[in-house]
Amino acid sequence: MDNKYNFDEIVSHLKNSGFVYQGSEIYGGLSNSWDFGILGSWLKKNIKDLWWKEFIERSPYNVGIDSAILMNTKTWEASGHIKGFADAMVDCKECKGRFRADNMIEEATGLSAEGKTPEEMDKMIEDNHIVCPVCGKHNFTSARSFNLMFKTYIGTLEDAKSVVYLRPETAQGIFVNFNNVARTSRKKIPFGIGQIGKSFRNEITPGNFIFRIREFEQMELEFFCQPGTDLEWYRYWVDYCYNFVKRLGIDENKLRIREHAQEELAFYSKGTSDIEYAFPFTDWGEVWGIADRTDYDLKQHSEYSGKELSYLDPETHEKYIPYCVEPSVGVERLFLMICCDAYDKEMVGENDERVVMHFHPAIAPVTVCVCPLVKKLAEPATKLFEDLSQEFHCEYDATGTIGKRYRRNDAIGTPFCITYDFDTENDGCVTVRERDSMNQERVKITDLKDYIKDRIKF
Question: pTM of the entire structure?
């Protein structure tokens, strides 16, 4: 799909505007490490707050937890991560480049290598005469498995008994707490447990800015239901997640739901769908995954821990291991999709071009910018700023012409600029300038908070 703007242009804007910085930049950086700046940290916070509100607070079914990053190693044995959480990698013998074999095969041929063994991937590379994406030569090492978990040690001794891993996903912290949550929340099936937290994956070939990184945040929900009702709930959560993305104002022409074919599914899954977006650097990139995981996870942890993870229906007295539907989304991927979709440039008049970030007002890093028309109005304008700051994230800008201040706020996505002018002292009104339409409206200061609240609703 054609994109209006080059990805490098969008990334440059995000870096220069204070959304994202190179990690450890003064030391030359660290491969694929990124820091979120003043605006980026606000945007991330607003995305996470909105997800929590829509998936946890406003849901009659769901509760939230915050589990530990470091977990007993048996957790990862039960989940299959120690044995099977690996990608196949190949090295180019000519240029020494290192690549994920499945990605290289798919990009070169369009064929999926998901679930293939390293030996099967070697054959696909050979049969299709796939060449190195860097130097163009066909001279690779054999594909070999590479575990993606970061290993560390707990305690004073670095030996086999003290090995722990940085979690590669947040979901397992939910599964191991199933009994605790069911007992303390007194929730009846169906119910969900959600959390937001850091995960770590030692990706072979991270890239495309923050699309694939080694340290990231996930927003995951594990929704537990009665066997036989799982596919109904699976469809429910696919629709719910897709509608959440649409409500953010994302261009529907760049969105799609891709349901996995039978041969793509994990052996325990009854259905998996990805919400994908047409990023500027690829045709389609996965943003959100929704999977029907059946009772696999609870059964695994029950077997490995020796603890029964079942549910006793208080009304029917039926005892069973619940099935689980998992909607999982990476914060950084959602962040990147929102930024790519929001970025725009347009001419205002014949010679004036503005950059504008069309963020949904509910997640914009700055909601309101208060601008005194001239410096002599700074005192009352500052009081207005302080009052509005009690309820909204506000900025105060008194530097440059009012037009330049509008342009600066357009470029960071501020939905409303409020100008305090000489007439304000007489009529008690301020001028509210809306970002997308650039329309201006006189609004009474006494009505201002309700005016803003009404327009930032999600």
Answer: 0.91
